[in-house]
Write a structure and sequence with these properties.
Layout (H helix, E strand, L loop, with lengths): L4 H7 L29 E6 L11 H7 L3 E5 L6 E7 L13 H18 L3 E7 L2 H6 L6 E5 L5 H10 L8 H11 L5 E6 L8 H9 L3 E8 L1 H4 L5 E6 L6 E6 L1 H25 L2 E6 L4 H12 L4
Parallel strand pairs: 3-4, 3-6, 6-7, 7-10
Antiparallel strand pairs: 1-2, 4-5, 8-9
C-alpha cells in the first residue's frame, strides 16, 4: 500500500484551500463541505454517490423524486488537478528517498484529501507522447471523479504508475490545458529536469484560470552529490554521457548553481502568483502535507 489506514484517516481530515478566483468556478477561499455552509444560496446540482447527505434538499426530493444538492456561494465545486512528472529522471534515490515513490505518495495524499471533501479530482502522469505509448502502465490519466468512495480506485491507479522515458514539461502541460474543460487548483509535482522550460506552460495554465503550485522534488544525492574523482556521467533519459572531474571546488560550484536555480524558480513563481515548495526527499513525505503545506496555507 502507498500508506496505511491510520495515515489515510489523518490526511482526510484536511481540506485543500484555493485562494484565488478562477474563471467563475470559485468565489474567494472555498469553505470545506465538512464545516457548515454559507447562508448565500447559489444553485443546485445533481447528487453524486459519496456526497454529504446533509446537503440534500429533501423538499425538492419529495416533489421530483430526484436527489439534488444545494450549492452555496462559497461552496461551488473545486476541481483539483494533480500533474505528476513520470519521466525517468524521477526514478532516482534509494528506498523512501526515491523521487518518484515520494511523489506518488504526495499525489495520492492530495488526491485523498480532494475526494474526502467531494472536490472533483483529475490526476495525470506526464511524460512525452512517445514515452506514454511505451510505458508499462495501463493508464496515465485518472478522473475527473469525485466522492470519497473513489479513494481505493485512486490509490490503485497511483500504485500502477511507473516512470519512463523523457518529458517536455512545456508540451505536456500545453496538451493537458488543451484537453481540460474546467480549471481549478493545479499541483505540478516534478524535479523540473526537462529539455525546455516550464514558463510557457505555467503561463498557459494561469491564463486558463488555474491556481498553480509547483512542488519541486529533489533527492539528497542531487542536492549534495557524494561524488569525487574522474567520472563518466550518463543521462538516464537520453543516454548522453559527459566526462567530468569532481573535486571539492567543483562540488561547491555545483551546489551554488543548484541553489541559484531553485531560488530563480521560486522568485519566478512569486512574480507570477504561483506557489512554490522545494522538497528534499530525505524528510518524511507526510511532513510535507501535515506541516509544510499547512504552514503555507495550502491545506487546513
Amino acid at each position: 500500500m502507498i500508506f496505511d489506514e491510520g495515515t489515510l484517516r489523518k490526511i482526510t481530515q484536511l481540506t485543500l484551500v484555493a485562494h484565488q478566483v478562477r474563471s467563475g468556478w470559485m468565489k474567494g477561499e472555498r469553505r470545506s463541505v465538512k464545516r457548515g455552509t454559507s447562508i448565500e444560496f447559489a444553485d443546485y446540482r445533481n447528487y453524486t454517490p459519496g456526497d454529504d447527505l446533509r446537503r440534500l434538499d429533501w423538499n425538492v426530493f419529495a416533489r421530483l423524486d430526484k436527489p439534488y444538492l444545494k450549492l452555496f456561494e462559497e461552496e461551488e465545486d473545486l476541481v483539483v488537478h494533480i500533474l505528476l512528472d513520470a519521466s525517468l529522471s524521477m526514478d532516482f534515490g534509494e528506498g523512501d528517498q526515491n523521487k518518484f515513490q515520494f511523489s506518488v505518495r504526495l499525489a495520492a495524499a492530495l488526491g485523498a484529501i480532494a475526494l474526502a471533501n467531494s472536490d472533483w479530482l483529475a490526476i495525470s502522469s506526464i511524460r512525452s507522447r512517445a514515452s506514454e505509448r511505451e510505458s508499462g502502465t495501463t493508464a496515465s490519466h485518472y478522473g475527473p471523479t469525485r466522492g470519497q468512495f473513489n479513494t481505493l480506485s485512486m490509490l490503485q491507479f497511483m500504485e500502477s504508475q511507473k516512470p519512463s522515458g523523457q518529458t517536455d514539461l512545456n508540451q505536456s502541460l500545453k496538451d493537458y490545458v488543451s484537453m481540460t474543460r474546467r480549471p481549478g487548483l493545479a499541483f505540478l509535482i516534478s524535479d523540473l529536469f526537462t529539455a525546455g522550460s516550464y514558463h510557457d506552460a505555467l503561463a498557459q495554465l494561469q491564463g486558463r484560470g488555474f491556481e498553480v503550485m509547483i512542488i519541486h522534488i529533489l533527492s539528497p544525492d542531487e542536492l549534495d552529490p557524494p561524488l569525487g574523482g574522474d567520472l563518466r556521467l550518463v543521462d538516464i533519459e537520453t543516454g548522453l554521457s559527459q566526462e567530468v572531474s569532481v573535486d571539492y571546488d567543483m562540488r561547491q560550484l555545483y551546489k551554488k548553481r543548484l541553489e541559484t536555480w531553485r531560488q530563480e524558480i521560486e522568485k519566478d513563481c512569486q512574480k507570477r502568483g504561483a506557489r512554490y515548495l522545494g522538497i528534499n526527499t530525505s524528510q518524511p513525505w507526510d511532513r510535507v502535507i501535515l506541516q509544510e503545506m499547512r504552514q503555507m496555507g495550502v491545506v487546513k
